[in-house]
Amino acid sequence: MSATAISPTNLALIKYWGKRDTNLNLPINSSISITLDSRELHTITTAMFAPEGETEDKLWVNNKPVPLSTVPRTVRVLQLMRQLAQGNNATTQRAIYIVSKNSFPTAAGLASSASGYSAMVTALAGLFDLKTSKEDLSRIARQGSGSASRSLMGGVVMWNMGTRQDGLDSQAELVPFARQVELEAIICVVSEKKKKVSSTAGMQTSVKESPLLAHRAKDIVPVRINAMKQAFAAGNVESVLELTMRDSNQFHACCLDTFPPIFYMTDTSKEIVNLVTELNRESVRYAYTFDAGPNAVVFCEPQHTQTLLDALLVAFPPPATGEETFAYVRGRTELTATQALQRNTAKRAKVEQEQEGELCYIFHTGMDKLGARVLQGAEEQERQLAVPT
Amino acid sequence: MSATAISPTNLALIKYWGKRDTNLNLPINSSISITLDSRELHTITTAMFAPEGETEDKLWVNNKPVPLSTVPRTVRVLQLMRQLAQGNNATTQRAIYIVSKNSFPTAAGLASSASGYSAMVTALAGLFDLKTSKEDLSRIARQGSGSASRSLMGGVVMWNMGTRQDGLDSQAELVPFARQVELEAIICVVSEKKKKVSSTAGMQTSVKESPLLAHRAKDIVPVRINAMKQAFAAGNVESVLELTMRDSNQFHACCLDTFPPIFYMTDTSKEIVNLVTELNRESVRYAYTFDAGPNAVVFCEPQHTQTLLDALLVAFPPPATGEETFAYVRGRTELTATQALQRNTAKRAKVEQEQEGELCYIFHTGMDKLGARVLQGAEEQERQLAVPT
Question: Which residues does chain B have within 8 Å of residue A253's beta carbon, measured at their own beta carbons?
């Protein structure tokens, strides 16, 4: 008896930063994200009943056992899923094993918690054979990690902050978008030496110490959420992109307004901002966005992706690793370091070479239309995970 | 017939960013600054009547002629000073020559406009033999450069934003401070490759594009101005320092919230922030503040300056220029590159050497108690400037 689920990750265009309830993971403002294609970036999780006689729940992530005592939020999500199943008369008394694996390296700076908790609740819903809606599952995933609530659905997703103290209205909902809206994402993985401030700690320092964040959450984000929904509904990509950049800037502004200040963007991050600003000089075709780290994600429509990649390869030549076959561009476009260098030889001759190695690599992906789902049939057979030995 | 004035520069603790009237230089919020010691950093300006027969006003800055057609604000200030003199029945019809010189290198990132316009109005008041108050002169200097209004007075100075449309109440006033308050300043001149966004252009983009700046000016700064005045009056240096850091952070947050965003702080700036945050772990003894550039100014009481210098010399070894006698620490403390390296050999062995050369040099100065003044007697003889040949 097991079920295997796959979940995409997501990237917020209108940012989540700050909780009004740290226990229930209730945010101080709503947020809107794009779900990223699970073909390239995903967590796969298999949930199974433990063998007869075993009484303890267990967890493995990326082939390593993780003691449940170290991950209280995982314990909580498992408990909430059991409660839900009991209400649906499912078998829940047996111990459960959860085996989980991320397709993306942690170095990518993409929060594995978003896809992780989304995959976990989906796999458990499959194991218990529940017909629970994604909205309802999102409230449970939210208690694992706030942004996980947005990974259950594909396309464009709003995490509605809700107003209730018990969080029962703080859940994900689909944001309708015009049929022609199609976005790709270029993830620029920035080389970094220093340890970062965790987003969980950082956001609560901001809530306490940044007067600008309070104003943002109360007076600015509600207006932006509506503007973003309207832009998606109308298929106004330019407006989607501009709002995305403005909101990323404002999130980092609030980090800087924190005391002591939190810096996530580095000089390299700023060079990417300047590069995108330059590409947008005539019309807004690209949007950068930064989460709690220096990595940029740049969104654009598919017909503009190659121009962006070319500009990035000119500005940020691959690091000199000594390996010519090193994969510098990954995902939907694949280029080795050698190929990346060859692609823009002519243009690069004109620019200074100072930025060599500032990016570790570049990842090309796009939107996911499905969200988290339980795998069936052949796909399940192929991808289900066994307990590591 | 000539008069020579000296003016200090100043550094804002509560920042000025944004004008409500760009023509009159009326700000969107009041600001508070510390006047920096004119013994180390100053502009000296000699104003003189041109020789008989000359009909054209002329200007020289740092030994170079500056066509008045290129500096409309200087023309305006000269005109306003003539109007003031006419109201006082002074001789004003003759052409005027203004010769000005800054003691600090432009690379220091210290706005020479603050001391420059302050010295200019003071020298012209001397030339016209006016008994005009510093408050009244500050309104004229303000129209040259907003921050110049604060350089006329010594100690701690508030530029009151005023409420009148004609700007007649937008002027400097002294902020009283407890006798024991004494601060020194360590200016960290950060090596920089890129051209910066001018503060004049940058602040008006922020006024137009940053929703956080509007909130800051209207709701946050007034509270901080009062808190800062109270802290100075009470001699609460710790509070002065903390407010200074919070306000610098918030100013740069508003720059980042601008679209496209304005970045003045670099990775090196952030390292200085982190160093000061670390030094302040037990109690707040130091405050960083950054203007429209990457240079840090760190304030502290005199008994804590050497600890700060030591920490800076460990973290930021001098650049390898090949000249051992290169002045790496200047002003009240003077150290060559060699001496700077020797001073912390033991400690530096423990840290990584990555930050070598990130600072061009370090300048040690302090508070100025006098503000701008006309030089008299022997001092005038010694320092007056002649028209460069």
Answer: 210, 212, 253-254, 256-257
